[in-house]
Prior knowledge:
- By secondary structure, this protein is α/β, with parallel strands linked by helices.
- It has helices at about 15-25, 75-90, 130-145, 165-180, 215-230, 270-275, 295-300, 330-345, and strands at about 5-10, 30-40, 45-50, 50-55, 55-60, 70, 90-95, 125, 150-155, 240-245, 255-260, 280-285, 305-310, 320-325.
- The protein has a 6-stranded parallel β-sheet, with helices on both faces. A 6-stranded mixed β-sheet has the order 10-9-11-14-13-12.
- Helix 3 crosses helix 8 (about 330-345).
- The longest helix is centred in the middle third of the chain and has 17 residues, at about 130-145.
- It is globular and about 60 Å long.
- The protein starts with a strand and ends in a 13-residue tail after the last helix.
Amino acid sequence: MMRKYAVAILGATGAVGQRLISELEKSKIPVKQIKLLASKRSAGKKLKFKNQEIIVEEAQPDSFKGVDLVLSSAGGAVSKRLLPEAVKRGAVCVDNTSAFRMADEVPLIVPGVNDEQLVNHHGIIANPNCSTIQMVAALYPLHVKWGIKQIIVSTYQAVSGAGKAAWDELLQQAQDRLNKQKTTAKILPTASAKKHYPMAFNLLPQIDVFEDDGYTHEEWKMIHETKKILFNDQDSKKIKVTATCVRVPVEIGHGETVYFVLKDEKATTAGIKREIVKTPGLVLQDDPENQIYPQPLLAAGKKETFVGRIRSDQENPGAFNMWIVADNLLRGAASNTVEIAECLVRDNLVRVSKQQIAL
Length: 359
C-alpha cells in the first residue's frame, strides 16, 4: 500500500506559502492530512487545499506532532526556532530561508542537479536562494558536459523577493510618482539599513547587508551556495564565482546576466543551446531575429527557468554570455521546495535519522 503523508506548511499565509499550497496540490505527494501554520496574527484565517477549507493554526513546537513533512517559508528566525522542534517530533523539513543553508550537515538542493545529496539529510533540507536556483539550473547541464571553471553574474531582482511590504511600497511609490506626489521609502534596500531609498523608477545595487569585503550578503550567498551545490563545499576552489546583485522595480521575476567560462574550449553556442533544450525544466527563448528572449512579465506564474541571449565571448575562447529569467516566488521558492519533497518521497527518505545533528 502506498504510504500517505501528513504535511505541514509553515508560513502558509505568505506569498511563497500560498504558492506552496498550490504546488503541493499539483504534486505527486500523497497527502493524508494538511496543516497550515503561521504566526499568531494570521491564526484563524481560512485557506483552501484541494477545495477543502483549512483553518490556519498558530505555529508552535507541538504543531508538528504527527507530521511527516514540513514545507517552510516563514523567515529565518522562525525556522531556527521551530524546525529543530519539528525534527525532534519526527518530521522532515524543507526550508526556504537562509537559516540552515550553509550548515555542513544540511543538504542544499536543486532537484535535477544534486538531489543525490538528500540521502545525507538529518531532518532538515535547505532550499537555495532564488537567484542561485535559476542560475545553477541553467548552468548545470553545461557543467556536466564541458565543465565550468568561472562564473560572473549580475542579477536584476524583483521586489517581491524582499517581501510583501516592499512590494506594496513599490506600487505605492509608482502611483505617487505618476500623480506627482511626494514618495516615501521605509523598507528598501533592506529594513535594517540606516538609509532607505525609493524603488519605483530606480535601481538599488544593494540586496541585504554589506559584508566587510564590500560584497552584500546576497552576493555572498550566490557565490558560496553555487560552490556548495556543485561541489558540496561552500569554499571550493574548483570554480571561481563572483556576483553583483541589483534590486529592480519589477514585481515578479528575477533576471540574470551570466558570463561563464568552460573548461572545454570546443563548446559552441549551438551546442549549449542543444543542452538547454533537452534539459527538463529549462526553456530556450533565443531568437534575436524575432526579438524572442526571456522576460519577467512572461515568466511570472511559470515553474520553468527561461534561457536566452546565448552568445560566445569573441575575445576569449570557451567563454559565453547568457540571460536567465525565472519566477522568484515559484521557481525560486515554492516549486523547488515541493520538488525536493517529491524527491524525498520518491526515494523513501521521509524519515529522521536516530543520530540527529544538533542545529
